[in-house]
Amino acid sequence: MYPGGVDPSARTISSKILAIAESATLKVDAKAKALKAEGRPVISFAAGEPDFPTPAHVVDAALAAVKDPANHRYTPAAGLPALRAAIAKKTARDSGWAVDPSQVVVTNGGKQAVYQAFQALLNEGDEVLVPTPFWTTYPEVIGLAGGVAIDVFAGADQDYKVTVEQLEKARTPRTKVLLFVSPSNPTGSVFSPEETKAIGQWALEHNIWVIADEIYQNLVYDMGVDHALSIVEAVPELQDQCILVNGVAKTYAMTGWRLGWMVGPADVIKASANLQSHLSSNVSNISQLAALQALEGDQADARAMQQAFNARRHAIIEGLNAIDGVFCPTPQGAFYVYPDVRGLLGKTWAGRTPTTSLELADVILDECEVAAVPGEAFGPSGYLRFSYALGDADLAEGIARLQAFFRA
């Protein structure tokens, strides 16, 4: 007799769901945390999560919201009117797009916004050009929407930034969407204003939709500005064929609050709001009011975190580039570095000879007790992603371990 009376061989799970791969970044981070729980001194560079607490004034706003019975009830699925208005204001300020609050949907984190954006646009077989290296979730949600992800790879020699020529070569009659991410996860690369404008004009010329993930928009360095240039600010004519996704997670150290949003043309946003009304309904009112305070309140904590990330960026780049066989470009945004580690492959380290970055990451975790995410999670092998959104002491110790190991 089978448990529950069901023969496992007769169980049928959706092929779409079976095709979903586990998030590689979360998997590596979970393994690192499990080893730490066993007492091993593992230092994890895996998760893209600030180590700072959420700013106190944001937490205070949430505490006040909890005590208000009005927040104990359902609210509009698309978001609280005050927060939608604040997001519209931020979009005008940082993305150069003057939108009405009705063009905003508040989501359970930026990840839900990404999912809904592709669901809103894609039909079966539509192709999406995905600049590679890419965040692990993109191909999965494209597939769930019936689309086909077309990788367009740019290596360290291009600072991980695709060109118009590469995009044009990958374009087919089935190309419907271009994914545009600047600053990038996993590389931290930021497209220059000239590059952004050229890609935007190319998408406009070929009537290709753009989904622009701007979650790291306000984490930029060495650029003399406080935000990366949005593709709709570079090419305003794209506003009729563009969806922006964003959130408070990275800039305000609010990953656990699960608060994101999407902005776009009125018809797309209405359709997305309809989807969300059945999918999840409204985001927690407590998180929404915390996000409202984050966007409209004092920005001093956010600026201090950005400055701390910048100092860590310099430290990790210098430390990794001191290892023979590692080439780490200097990113201008987010809180990741993406070194080319092909110079370490095919060599013997502690009796093991890794030939892929996946194998190298295992060696590093086993021998150095340092966790990094292998390039296979984001595209081709030969690279590792390190997040520098961890404490200064852990960063220094982790890099020191790597330097000592690869000198041996």
Care to describe what's here?
The protein has about 400 residues and is an alpha/beta fold. It has two domains: about 5-55 and about 300-405, Aspartate Aminotransferase, domain 1; about 70-295, Aspartate Aminotransferase, domain 2, CATH 3.40.640. It is about 40% helix and about 10% strand. The protein is built from 14 helices and twelve strands. Strands 2-8-7-6-5-3-4 form a seven-stranded mixed beta sheet, sandwiched between helices. β6, α9 and β7 form a beta-alpha-beta unit. α3 (about 55-65) runs antiparallel to α11 (about 285-295). The longest helix has 22 residues, at about 300-320. About 50% of the residues are buried.
SSE inventory with pairings:
Layout: H1 15-18, H2 24-37, E1 43-44, H3 56-66, H4 81-95, E2 104-107, H5 109-121, E3 127-132, H6 137-144, E4 148-153, H7 164-170, E5 175-181, H8 193-205, E6 209-213, H9 231-234, E7 242-247, E8 260-263, H10 266-279, H11 285-296, H12 300-321, E9 336-337, H13 357-368, E10 370-371, E11 373-374, E12 384-387, H14 392-407
Parallel strand pairs: 1-10, 3-4, 3-5, 5-6, 6-7
Antiparallel strand pairs: 2-8, 7-8, 9-12, 11-12
Helix pairs in contact: 3-11, 4-11, 5-6, 5-10, 12-14
